[in-house]
Amino acid sequence: MSILDLTGIAQQFGDKILYEDLELHLNKGEHLGLIGQNGAGKSTLIKIITGEQLPDEGTIAWQKNIHVGYLDQYVEVDPTLSIKDFLKTAYAADFAKEARIGELYMEYGESMEDKLLEKAGKLQTELDQGDFYQIDTLIAEMSSGLGLDVLGMDTPLEDLSGGQRSKLILAKLLLEKPDVLILDEPTNHLDDEHVAWLSQFLQEFEGTFVVISHDRDFLNQITTHIADIEFGKLTKYTGNLTKALKQKEQFQETYMKQYASQKKQIEKTEAYIRKYKAGSRSTMAKSRQKQLDKVERLTPPSSNAIAHFEFPYAPIVTTLALETTDLEIGYQRPLLPPINVTLRYGEKVAIRGFNGIGKSTLLKTLIGAIPKLDGEFHFPANTKVNYFEQDLQWENPYQTPLQYLSDHFPKETVKELRKHLAKAGLPNQLAQEPLSTLSGGEQTKVKLCQMTMQKGNLLILDEPTNHIDQATKDSLRESLANFAGTVIVVSHEEGFYQDWTDRVIEISQ
């Protein structure tokens, strides 16, 4: 049974056409993964589905009385609430029933009307049959599964990092048990063990969900169907991601053969028409022209822009890349015990630790964005650091990628800047759109493009894969593996770094 029908959806931003006549039918119980290249319009489609954004054309029809839960990581929350109290708001309706029961008993004491007792009894039955008397247990299980318990359940929300806050909002959404879950990159701020827990939770989820994720293993484990947005159209496949990609490959091979066969036949017919249109066989030539005019021609196969990254190397003579001595990082107080690390020059290292422990703070301390609290760290002379920050924040979000890069590299011509952006997988059309209108993956490509335009011998990257598609990840992985200097990367995706890093540094308290 279909619980959501999207029909004739069209969406365009400036000159960028996202969809033309897109359709999607979501059935009850389906676990749907939404995939597509960066900028294909996945997050925009989620906004259309949730009603946050209206399409230029088309209709969105939900089945009546469907409770939809959307992972909105930017929702406003009361910063003074504790983690536990915030999670309890998932059961606000039940607490309201409990309060109403108390009011009904008070009213009964004054009026002695039996109908008040009946109302109270009905509400009490609803609480008894629901989760009301298991709330503390359910919150504890959810907090443990997503790693919130280690933060302290009495911790106020204002003390949480962005990643911790995202996990908290996800936990509340899951506790609400909506009929339909809408999740946009839910694993971005989760460690491996918490991704595994969420995967198991979603596999056992009896409702319906739509999830966007660039994590292939995660999608393979949780999905029963895949919806692929490509070139403005949506194709739905039955099965998990691996099965869907195999079906897509088979379809593309069949289409390529059909296109090549038709093209060959058309060329043969056109050659015949040219040869005989003025001779004794002109009547036959005209007949074939009429037949040719009626042929519904297949469109040439399209291809996505593929990113290629080359990080320019600044030569340096040294055997040491970084040394820390009793380094303490944090803000008012240290986040971690004193750090003592030595990196050899040319070493490639991944830093891993649970979300919010201080990985980003460590990187920002090393580049000088945050002052150290105590201890020392040392880079050799002539070290040139090239840094990627995970937060997609811009001083002027209304600038275009061309304007942004021009400000940072004023000696480069517009033509050269376009070439750099195109090489990073951002076509000319998007190079002239405001940064704020680009997808997370497209904004990431702009930042990575900036890195490819400045020489360095130490690359420091903080969660560079959060928003990029698999093809872009593969290209980035290859470029980092081939970089001649030192690389430090923070990533929650073991599959991204495990085959090219020399070692993994675990950060713990």
From TrEMBL:
This protein's UniProt keywords: ATP-binding, Nucleotide-binding
Q: Which domain of life is it from?
A: Bacteria
Q: Name one GO molecular function term.
A: ATP binding
Query: What SMART domains does the entry give?
Result: AAA
- A Pfam family cross-referenced in the UniProt record is ABC_tran
List, alphabetically, the InterPro entries matched: AAA+_ATPase, ABC_tran_Xtn, ABC_transporter-like_ATP-bd, ABC_transporter-like_CS, ABCF_ATPase, P-loop_NTPase
Looking at the record, the residues that make up the ABC transporter domain are 4-256, 317-507
Q: Which CDD domains match?
A: ABCF_EF-3
Task: Output this protein's name.
Answer: ABC transporter ATP-binding protein
Q: Which organism is it from?
A: Enterococcus gilvus ATCC BAA-350
